[in-house]
From TrEMBL:
GO terms for molecular function: ATP hydrolysis activity; ligase activity; ubiquitin-protein transferase activity. This is RN213 ligase. One of its GO terms (biological process) is negative regulation of non-canonical Wnt signaling pathway. It comes from the Eukaryota.
Amino acid sequence: FQYLKRYDQGCNLDTFCYEAHSVEGSPAECLQQFLLHCGITDPSWSELRNFTWFLNVQLRDCEASVFCNPDFVRDTLQGF
């Protein structure tokens, strides 16, 4: 949710890192973001769950990758 919210606001996601147990927004805002970004017009709960699970895994791997660390990469892979 936090990444999608910042993406919609036009924030630089290269410098953002999720902090465990941090809470932003309401459950309704969270659901609205997922519905806007999942790519399915009328998704089932299962489809929303799969979307959020996949997105979470990808973002966790991205945050853990040295190649996505702005301190390591500097500006050589801007926007990657």
